[in-house]
Amino acid sequence: MNVFLEHYWPHILAVISFALGATAAIHATMTKDEVRAAIGWVGVIMLSPILGAAIYAVAGINRMRRQSVRDKRESVPDAVAHEEQKHKINRDRVVTDLGPRMGGQWMLGNTVTGMPATAGNKVRLLETGDEAYAAMLEAIDKAERSILLETYIFDSDAIGRRFVESLSNAVKRGVEVRILVDSIGARYSRPRITGLLREHGIRVATFNGAVLLRLRLPYANLRTHRKILIIDGETVFAGGMNIRAAFTGPNAAQDTHFMLTGAAVADYFAVAAADWYFETHETLDGAAWSIAETSSDEGPLIARVVPSGPDRNLSNNNNMIMGALSVAEDRVLIMSPYFLPDRDLVSALATAARRGVTVDIIVPGKNNLGLVDRAMTAQFDEIIENGCRIWRDNGPFNHSKLMTVDGKWSYLGSSNLDSRSLRLNFETDLEVFDIGFASEIEARIAAARERSTQVLRKALRERPFVYRLRDRILWLGLPYL
């Protein structure tokens, strides 16, 4: 046997290499929805047959085969009809209040998201980390039945420890507490917050770790980027803010979180509870996890929860944004820390601008991710050429993800405008049909624009060639940034 291996190991290795490479390449060809993704992975696999196949096995295969969070409760048409009957809302109401184009956006959401829009919601914007964390900690301290928290980053810094203390006290009061932290986000600080939570008797799980060669490894992709805190089935805190000290203090990074009460609480709970079940196989039901009854009189806002992710909710957020750009008549305001739109989204932005819609995009003046910022810059020339305006915010780094259309429709939550958020991450956003709320979001974006510097094509083209080349090379990695 040893003699056989000594003489034929190159042939055996060649056969293994071919088998692994062919299997991986066929899998990529048959399962990838985008031709660019399929070609890219096949190229990696064929150029590095064994290593490429191994990389594809870890980072390229979408193992998420979850059903929609609504599937176990009711079908999409039944869910929509139920909410329309309960809260007396329908397309005609949206058309009457906001016009036929917004009625089209309403129908798009009904069709693609798996979530009905609901009336009877109140949303309070929380514009700083100090304000948001104070409100969240107060709600945790007053919790009587249940606390469900899902987040991407939960640092074990001063703010993280304050949350652990409040959550620990809640457990001691007899409150049911469940914490779900992304497996990569949990590694952003040392010691990891998961260990500290367990030391205090708090039920915690990490999202989407993978077992490979007996090692517990997180996927580089397929993260939960959601930020959802649900208190007693009555109040939701959501948006773009992680739990970390970087968002506190006078020179803190900025973000937009919000507190929501009303009918949409049930849908936020459905999303977070499904993620908890996916990791732990524990169903959150019973009296502690019941959702408070609401009526359309409790709040004026019509809102829809939009879950997205690489399961049956794939590209929900992208579809909603594309739809909003197609119905825009007057103006679109966008704020995003990581603005890396793919070709379809670039085309949608250009088409809106060419129809005469004013499209303003605000990005940070100084980004916390240098590589992403340089790849963003590589796209600016084309986007500006097509009629959009881009602004660099000169204030503190702003992590907010906000969008408004025509002062009637708003979109906010955890989704960035990049391939990771629009195709790879699990995200949760909120669309709101309301003129008053849209004016609040517009005012926040406009304030950032006032302190911003407009990006001009002339300045972009006058940059040294080596810088422009560097940015374009980094831009080639757009699907993975």
Describe this protein's structure.
By secondary structure, the protein is α+β, with helices and mostly antiparallel strands. The chain has helices spanning 2-31, 35-47, 49-60, 76-87, 91-98, 100-112, 129-142, 158-172, 193-199, 265-280, 316-327, 343-354, 370-385, 419-424, 435-450, 457-461, 465-475; strands at 118-126, 146-151, 176-182, 203-207, 209-212, 215-218, 228-231, 235-239, 257-262, 301-308, 331-335, 358-364, 389-393, 402-405, 409-413, 427-433, 452-454. The strands form two sheets. The chain has a 15-stranded mixed β-sheet, with helices on both faces. Strand 7 and strand 8 form a beta hairpin. Helix 1 packs across helix 3 and helix 13 (370-385) packs across helix 17. The protein is globular, with a radius of gyration of 23 Å. Residues 65-77 and 211-219 have low confidence and may be disordered.
